[in-house]
């Protein structure tokens, strides 16, 4: 579904990504982890054509992202950047409604409205639907932005730290929802996550990045070991097992 | 009262105020015309069609245009404290007319407007390219930069106008006034109405633009193309106003802020009401200017400066009082 070949990126003389190749097949929840500055966000925004590709190739659903009309790509991939948080006087319903723009070009049909209502309900935003985004808390705003990305209803979903600002129940709800769009609707989700345990519990696969390259790639069980984590984060962490799943005790 | 109940009431009130203002504008003037004379007196009709109606229409068209230009400008700059008169757009337009007057003194009004629009486009592009580089968490830097930029452009233009003995023209371009409006001398402003219609048509896309480049691209919007369209709308409206009646401050700041505070930033909803409020404000200020020292007049630009500043302060501090 997402094919990344030999992608490098240099910004201001600094090498952000060096020769990254990665294939992400259709249907699955892939978590991207790694320390700050590893190049995760940059790779995500290159896939989402938010910045120009300097070298290498990226295609999504067989379409090269640097040569496909942006309008067409908007029906195939949705991307949520880290904290674009517009302090906007748009109502929550209007903001989520703009997620339908690639399909409706601004004229919402009954079907669009149904998708928007469903997204609002999914993220417990129905009661806030007529509030201005600028009056929401950080977590509520984040939920509205994720709801907007999901309302875009694309086969591929790229999320940069979707759990930002979310409290524990809302973070868990979001991960469960992502799991459901993968299992029930066959979507491909690539999400940058900082909480390794959310990755462990919900992702099919974890891609660990370090210093602009892929340091490790595999199932949560294979990847979340003390040795592997130390090599990626430079910091030894205990890994316990609860109900057969790895739990990283990163805070100890 | 709930917001839902307040809305139709507000709309009805706004429409009533606008209609009353139009009636008053048609009734007020130095020439002694009573509305009931129109049925019998041909001379009264002539005065109405040649002067009162054009003046009223000019104020409505200019006001609606300025309001919408301000709203679009705020979407482009992603800042609700900018407007064309404080961001160098009007000053660039004035510089454009000055250059046109110097180089092609015989040029027609439409030709001068075209040159003024081009200059406004260049001046506003420069403003926006700087505004987009300023840190978004410092919202007052953008209007502050705009004020300095506009002042520098304005002073440079004034200096050249003074050296070339064109300072009285410069004052006409920079101080809005409707007293000179007669049939045959305001019709270019209808192009401003076309620009307002263009803004209505592109309202959804302009709203997405106001959410920033990343969101725009993610939704498949042609970000650069839309930015250019917005720039054309703002520049042409500003240039038309400068050339036909002279720059009018504050309407582009106050009308959008009054409307978006109540209705929000969705341009599809806000733009029509911004046009109504901008037209009403401009016409009301022109009426005040005609009545205060009747039969003499105070230019609308001066009245708007006072009324607009008061309204803007009320907007700023009224919001704080309400938390």
From TrEMBL, chain A:
Belongs to the ABC transporter superfamily. It is found in: Cell membrane. Residues 2-236 form the ABC transporter domain. It is a peripheral membrane protein. GO terms for biological process: iron ion transport. PANTHER family: IRON(3+)-HYDROXAMATE IMPORT ATP-BINDING PROTEIN FHUC, PETROBACTIN IMPORT ATP-BINDING PROTEIN YCLP. Signal peptide: none annotated. The keyword Endoplasmic reticulum does not apply. This is Iron complex transport system ATP-binding protein. InterPro entries: AAA+_ATPase (IPR003593), ABC_transporter-like_ATP-bd (IPR003439), ABC_transporter-like_CS (IPR017871), P-loop_NTPase (IPR027417), Siderophore_ABC-ATPase (IPR051535). One of its GO terms (molecular function) is ATP hydrolysis activity. The keyword Ribosomal protein does not apply. The lineage of its organism: Bacteria, Pseudomonadati, Pseudomonadota, Alphaproteobacteria, Hyphomicrobiales. CDD domains: ABC_Iron-Siderophores_B12_Hemin. Transmembrane segments: none annotated. It holds the Pfam family ABC_tran.
Automatic annotation (TrEMBL), chain B:
Keywords: Cell membrane, Membrane, Transmembrane, Transmembrane helix, Transport. Belongs to the binding-protein-dependent transport system permease family. FecCD subfamily. One of its GO terms (biological process) is siderophore-iron import into cell. The chain crosses the membrane at residues 12-35, 56-77, 140-162, 188-211, 231-259, 271-292, 298-317. CDD domains: TM_ABC_iron-siderophores_like. It comes from Hansschlegelia beijingensis. The lineage of its organism: Bacteria, Pseudomonadati, Pseudomonadota, Alphaproteobacteria, Hyphomicrobiales. This is Iron complex transport system permease protein. It is found in: Cell membrane.
